[in-house]
Amino acid sequence: MKRQLILEDGTRFVGEAFGSERQTIGEVVFNTGMTGYQEILTDPSYCGQIVTMTYPLIGNYGINRDDFESIEPHVFGFIVKEACASPSNWRSELTIDEYLRIKNIPGLAGVDTRKLTRIIRQYGTLKGMICDMDVSVSEAVAYLKEAELARDQVKRVSTKSPYASPGRGHRVVLIDFGMKHGILRELNKRHCDVIVLPYNATAEDVLQLHPDGVMLSNGPGDPKDVPEAIDMIQNILGHVPLFGICLGHQLFALACGANTEKMKFGHRGSNHPVKHIETGKVAITSQNHGYTVTEQSLVHTRLEVTHIALNDGTIEGLRHKDVPAFTVQYHPEASPGPEDANHLFDDFIAMIEQFKKERGVVHA
Q1: What fold characterizes domain 154-358?
Q2: Which CATH architecture has domain 2-150?
Q3: Sorted alphabetically, which keywords does the UniProt record give (predicted)?
Q4: pTM here?
Q5: Which residues of the chain carry a pLDDT beneath 50?
């Protein structure tokens, strides 16, 4: 069945429907990963977005039970050049079409994703609508220009109540702004006793659990839409070691007096080179963000830049000069993507142990 994608600038793409047949609107973005579509579909950071895959063949190894990054997917739509109907992999249990149907996510195949990506790169992210053929371009454009995209994505994807993932090691409170399961897996791998709290947890909620460290997770949307998290971070800094990833990195920057801004089309893919300023080493990283910390805003803060993106020079890592806290804009847990930066979880554990040693606390 033919369906269409209409952008707010009037550009129209006609393709073949797969997945759900419902109409959807969202911010149209692109991801450059060649693999990892299952993790991308289930990354809560894509909440509110219609994701375009630049790699032409998607679904060729199917959907399996193990590669999910959240229990439920949060993308609003999925656009591909070709959706494979006959996947070949021993772990495959569903086709991508079957999975999107089950999860009520509309997909569009047969689209010139190269052209669509070039439009986004030239003009920036645009609102778009996946709809039936009887919707006119003028009707869709008028609707999109008036439509307000959701600004409560973090509230939608965060856990509604605290829960534990027990371990015998250091106690880590993980604030869930839209956490990928890969972060939890990496902490569990290091035997951490993890307690996951909702996005709106207060500093009191965090500190009364007597954590050895706090992690700020990734998540969707504009960090300025989560003011309660900024207040919480300000009130725990210096009391406990802190490590932030992606949205957690941006919230940390805001809490320390820096500013963030929306990028033209963001970083979404699994091949982004990032340079560690101190050592000069370059890591290939997995990224998914549409906002960045503004470099000029760091001048009057106690933050220093630790990593930069080699493609565009944007800030990819920060460290506090006075208290044990560091953050990165990329995803050291990968999933999907390279694991070049996985050592950052070990650095976090080392920071916790150093903090405890300085205070004469017995090692956990």
Answers
A1: Rossmann fold (3.40.50)
A2: 3-Layer(bba) Sandwich (3.50)
A3: Amino-acid biosynthesis, Arginine biosynthesis, ATP-binding, Glutamine amidotransferase, Ligase, Nucleotide-binding, Pyrimidine biosynthesis
A4: 0.96
A5: 364
